[in-house]
């Protein structure tokens, strides 16, 4: 049975997760770049002088950690999506692929409080399709004598 729809949805979901991994890498790069951070910090201090430097450092550490979390979670989702695609091709293990996709979609969406829902929706739909679609039963030809 052809699983083209599931494979395409999984590829789109993996691309979206890859985009979010790049967003996380950009966050980590930005907040590790001292010159950019100082410029942004000065701009924020000018706009809101009541903010303390300690508050700015807290924000810095929060976004650095969030960026790494986004990178790791997105890359795990991409790897598991590729594994699911391998399971789907040739109709090897579509049920296992469906379960993997649904679990990844749920965990990534809940772990980011809905931030990765866009990739998760594609994985969820592909996972449900893997579980629901069944291979057609082989036609048995009975001969009448």
Overview of the molecule:
By secondary structure, the protein is mostly helical. The chain has one domain. 78% of the residues lie in helices and 0% in strands. It contains five helices and no strands. Helix 1 packs antiparallel against helix 3 and helix 1 packs antiparallel against helix 5. It is rod-shaped and about 95 Å long. It starts with a helix and ends in a 13-residue tail after the last helix.
What would a concise description of this structure say?
With 145 residues, the chain is mostly helical. The protein has helices spanning 4-32, 34-47, 53-88, 94-111, 117-132.
Count the DSSP helices.
Answer: 5
Radius of gyration, taken over Cα atoms and rounded to an integer in Å = 22 Å
Helix content: over 70%
Q: Which percent band covers the strand fraction? A: under 5%
What does the largest sheet look like? none
Low-confidence stretches: none
- Mean pLDDT reading: 88
Number of domains: 1
What is the H-and-E element order? HHHHH
Query: Structural class of the helices, strands and pairings?
Result: mainly alpha
Question: What is the CA-CA span between the terminal residues?
Answer: 33 Å
- What does the overall shape look like? rod-shaped
- Tell me how many strands there are: 0
What labels would you give this structure?
about 0% strand; about 140 residues; mainly alpha; about 80% helix
SSE layout and pairing:
Elements: H1 4-32, H2 34-47, H3 53-88, H4 94-111, H5 117-132
């Amino acid at each position: 049975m052809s699983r083209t729809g599931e494979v395409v949805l999984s590829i789109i979901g993996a691309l979206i997760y890859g985009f979010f991994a790049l967003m996380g890498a950009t966050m980590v790069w930005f907040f590790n770049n001292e010159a950019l951070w100082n410029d942004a910090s000065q701009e924020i201090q000018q706009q809101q002088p009541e903010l303390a430097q300690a508050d700015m450092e807290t924000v810095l550490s929060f976004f650095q950690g969030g960026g790494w979390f986004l990178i790791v979670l997105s890359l795990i989702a991409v790897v598991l999506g590729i594994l699911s695609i391998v399971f789907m091709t040739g109709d090897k293990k579509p049920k296992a692929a469906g379960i993997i996709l649904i679990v990844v979609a749920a965990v990534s969406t809940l772990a980011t409080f809905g931030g990765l829902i866009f990739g998760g929706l594609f994985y969820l739909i592909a996972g449900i399709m893997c579980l629901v679609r069944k291979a057609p039963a082989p036609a048995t030809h009975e001969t009448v004598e």
